[in-house]
Amino acid sequence: MTAVMTDLEKDFLEYVKKMSAYNEAIGLMYWDMRTGAPKNGIEQRSEVIGMLSSDAFNMSVSEEMAAYIAKLSGKKEALNEVTQKTLNECKENYDRNKKIPSDEYKEYIVLCSKAESVWEQAKTESNFELFRPYLEKIVQFNKKLIGYWGYKENKYNTLLDIYEPGVTVEILDEVFAQLRSEIVPLVQKIAESSDKPRTECLFKHFPKEKQKEFSLAILKKMGYDFNSGRLDETVHPFAIGLNPGDVRVTTKYDEKDFRTAVFGTIHEGGHALYEQNISEELVGTPLCTGTSMGIHESQSLFYENFVGRNKSFWQENYDLLKSCSDGQFDDVPLNEFYRAINESKPSLIRIEADELTYPLHIMVRYEIEKGLINDEIEVRDLPRIWNEKYEQYLGIKPSNDGEGVLQDVHWSGGSFGYFPSYALGYMYAAQFKNKMLEEIPNYDELLEKGDLEPIKAWMTKNVHRFGKMKKPLNILQDATGEGLNANHLIEYLKEKYKEVYKL
Amino acid sequence: MTAVMTDLEKDFLEYVKKMSAYNEAIGLMYWDMRTGAPKNGIEQRSEVIGMLSSDAFNMSVSEEMAAYIAKLSGKKEALNEVTQKTLNECKENYDRNKKIPSDEYKEYIVLCSKAESVWEQAKTESNFELFRPYLEKIVQFNKKLIGYWGYKENKYNTLLDIYEPGVTVEILDEVFAQLRSEIVPLVQKIAESSDKPRTECLFKHFPKEKQKEFSLAILKKMGYDFNSGRLDETVHPFAIGLNPGDVRVTTKYDEKDFRTAVFGTIHEGGHALYEQNISEELVGTPLCTGTSMGIHESQSLFYENFVGRNKSFWQENYDLLKSCSDGQFDDVPLNEFYRAINESKPSLIRIEADELTYPLHIMVRYEIEKGLINDEIEVRDLPRIWNEKYEQYLGIKPSNDGEGVLQDVHWSGGSFGYFPSYALGYMYAAQFKNKMLEEIPNYDELLEKGDLEPIKAWMTKNVHRFGKMKKPLNILQDATGEGLNANHLIEYLKEKYKEVYKL
Fold first, then answer.
1. pLDDT > 90: what percent of chain A?
2. Dist CA B205 CA B214 (whole Å)
3. How many CB atoms lie within 10 A of CB B482?
4. Given CB atoms, is B220 within the 8 Å cutoff of chain A?
């Protein structure tokens, strides 16, 4: 029931609007730093970002916020639905942040910022011992956090809950075991296949300007609105939603491998469609963003894999790609191209992994994090454990820690519990695809025609528009009628690789 | 004498640093809106800018600020020099802003924001009556402000003081009369000259990308540091200093008239050199910007006219311009080109005026503003008075108000007292040039060699580094040994146009 708004409710919404304003300004400064801000201004800009971040943080744990929570929580049923959910979100943040002693938290922020630069050096030098003391402290602090916040069943659940509320160790253990039992034999079969794709055509010189032209065309076809966004170049690509009318995509051009830009842009474009299509009524509240890392990743991976690596999509777009290129595909039939972009083979680096082996990279990290947090693994044993797991899951072994345990930035920033979101997003995406096929049975035909509008409309109706109004598993349940289910992804992978490798 | 900093002094500096942080974030959002922010996000972005502006404004008139001013003013001699000047600046702002009843001020802000869109329509339709009621209210409010703030000698002095502290009606009346008495006969002589420059070569097709290439090269030669800045495209060019390590230039490319971009970039580059070379110790204080509109304009006009329209400069750069162009200067000797870019003839639009007639455009506005504020002119008579003055000063008459009294945006935003800065900047620039010649007698030779470093160094030593540590007339006095003096500009104009028009 929606009632007339009281002054208290209005004041609360003004208050959160101001926090959103700080975050929007911070977002723009972040984007700017990564797309061409002059380097001599960066240090001072970082201070500005720091000050605005403190403002937003202080507002989230202020006495004023405490008073809003106390006064409004008693009369929730009288509140507008958006206010209710906003209040919940603010309360969760308040409770979480208030429980950490502020001096400890500040110390931790300093630790992480140091740790990141040490990690960079350690990675370059492939020297785990350099990073070890920092990682030990970070793990220690995360355990402390769990002490402050409490936990249910498994300590690691508390960290998972930050990124993917509702998802637990129990759930993950089950789906990951299931995934692994299907993926590992499939990887094996592929390794033994005698009819592998030829991939030489991928690595010819593809001029940057032409890659950009193609990337822009594909974003447009996806339904990305250029009146509400723009495409820029960066070193580590990302998409960022400042508000639904300003959602920016960044990409990277590798003239020796067009896939970096093309699949990267489609991936970030998927994230961007999510942010562009959040309901306008959520602007200025903390609900005006994706509901979780996993659901966000479901959108990027859906477009990257179920659209961008689909043969029908290339039936529509291969000629355009050919015309943008310098002739590298002239003697390559569509089917050969399609097989090439879907090559699968075990590799050491997560971010370069293919669709099939990617979840195995995530499982390695998941098991290590779970073990660390539950005192079953020690930081000093990580290099050995990492290498053993890579051998066990992927059949290959890093020759040094730079391409092994030191490859990801996440742990140096204290992000424990984040990695599983990548794999969850993939499973969610497959579940959405499965459901979508019931409602849009001519899915492939639409791709062939280049008509991606109904696909975007389905995602907007079932996912985008809600922002954080629904928790991730509610989005999934309401959209597909089921909870987390690895079977759809497994089915997809089996079918796809059977075709690509003629198994 | 500089003493050890007290905690109070440190807290005060932290406080102003935060205000600077808001302003830096606002500056970036402003730049972004004018260089490619997606249009659908603008409305929400404007709200964010509004909120951060309120924050900065509220901090400037807060009780906390009042307390700092009260506590620190008593012990100024114990403060660091930067703190002293910062305190003065904060006190001036506090006094000015506190005297305006806040409800009246808010009403005025709304009025101006409406007035600007009405002005746009009025200009397009050339319909002064549409804009008249708004302008009347704005003038009325400015008179009210003078009532709150008080005045010395002449009411208009109070407004002048906002933009150019120390400059008064008495001073301006004198220098403008002097300028006019010399410029008007010179314009007359030029009109009668039988040897006018041929300007057809200016208006050939010059590809945008090539204009950009040339603009970048010239900025570099000027000593603009691209590690502390960047060049972008916009509709109404500007330069903006976010901090000395991030000072951005924008320009506009007209493929039918390369002068827009080339002289526009040099002009904005002059502003940018100022902001890039402010002393690092002023970062995070309100002193970290140009000291006044006039001194800022002295820098842009110095580079635009005394560098960019100097023959020696083109001896060095004409070949590069030729090589960037599509051949439009192939049969044009350097001297003919030099004369063409220095053509002078009376025109109706201020921003398109040449060096010689430009000050006359300013005088028209100055006299009208002075008359309005002193109740000697009524808003309803402006179109008639405007046209009469153009006829009297420039010998031409607008055929409609769109190209007459409605041409500038300034009044719709309430900026009365701003226009004189343009002419002051021009006089300051000529005074700097004159003094510089004593210390750098081989000025022209340096331009011929393309060695602009000593010129920039002179400006940094005498102007740039001080930021707002000195008032404009102190900058002038310390650099040149004299007060405002129109003679140097007059001498320059006489000599230059004698040469260009072979008088």
1. 94
2. 15
3. 13
4. no
ipTM: 0.93
Q: Is the pLDDT of residue B491 over 60?
A: yes
- The answer on whether B410 is annotated among ligand-binding residues is no
Instruction: Characterize B438-463 residue by residue with b for buried, 16 or more Cβ atoms within 10 angstroms of its Cβ, and e for exposed.
Output: eebeebeebbbeeebeebbebbbebb
- Active-site choice (B24, B164, B182, B268): B268
Answer whether A243 sits within 8 Å of B32, measured CB to CB: no
Nearest to A45 among B227, B246, B247 (CB): B246
Q: Looking up tokens 């960019």, which residue turns up?
A: B308
Instruction: Confirm whether residue B296 is marked as ligand binding.
Output: no
Kindly report, residue by residue over A377-392, the tens digit of the pLDDT.
999 999 999 999 999 9
Helix (H) or strand (E) segment spanning residue B286: none
Q: Do B44 and A246 touch (CB under 8 A)?
A: yes
Q: What is the mean pLDDT of residues B283-298?
A: 98
Distance from the Cα of residue B448 to its chain's centroid: 28
Whole-number Å distance between alpha carbons of A149 and A133: 24
Question: What is the spatial distance between Cα A330 and Cα A333, in angstroms, rounded to a whole number?
Answer: 8
Cα separations in angstroms, A27 against A30, A59, A248, A295 = 5, 17, 10, 20
* Beta strand extents in A60-208 (DSSP E only): none
Q: A45, B18: Cβ pair inside 8 Å?
A: no
Compute CA B428 distance to the chain's CA centroid, rounded to the nearest angstrom: 12
Binding residues of A for Zn(2+): 267, 271, 297
Q: What's the one-letter identity of residue A277?
A: N
Q: Which residue of A has its CA nearest to B47?
A: A21
> What is the torsional sign of CA B142, B143, B147, B152?
positive
Nearest to A36 among B42, B230, B244 (CB): B230
Residues B236 and B217: beta-carbon distance below 8 Å? no
Residue spans per domain, chain A: 7-98, 137-503
- Pairwise CB contact (< 8 Å): A44 & B246: yes
Strand partners, B232: B250
Question: What is the spatial distance between Cα B258 and Cα B436, in angstroms, rounded to a whole number?
Answer: 30
The stretches of A37-127 forming alpha helices (DSSP H) are 42-60, 63-73, 81-98, 102-125
| DSSP at A339 | H
User: pLDDT confidence of B503, banded at 50, 70, 90?
Assistant: confident
Q: Where are the alpha helices (DSSP H) in B74-154?
A: 81-98, 102-125, 128-149
Q: Which residues touch B3 (CB under 8 Å, ≥6 apart)? A: B78, B79, B80
Q: A9, A164, A182, A268: which is the annotated catalytic residue? A: A268
pLDDT mean across residues, chain B: 96
Residue B197 DSSP one-character state:
P
Asked if A38 lies within 8 A of B283 by C-beta distance, the reply is no
Of the pLDDT bands very low, low, confident and very high (cuts 50, 70, 90), residue A3 is low
B14 among known catalytic residues: no
Q: Which residue of B has its CA nearest to A24?
A: B48
The yes or no reply on domain A137-503 and CATH 3.30.460.30 is no
Yes or no, beta carbons of A38 and B284 under 8 Å apart: no
Q: One-letter amino acid identity for A90?
A: C
* Closest-CA residue of chain B to A50: B21
What residue of A is the nearest CA neighbor of B20? Answer: A48
Please report the residues numbered 11 through 70 in chain A whose beta carbons come closer than 8 angstroms to any beta carbon of chain B.
Answer: 17-18, 21, 24-25, 28-29, 32, 36-45, 47-48, 51-52
Reply yes or no on whether the pLDDT at B1 is more than 70.
no
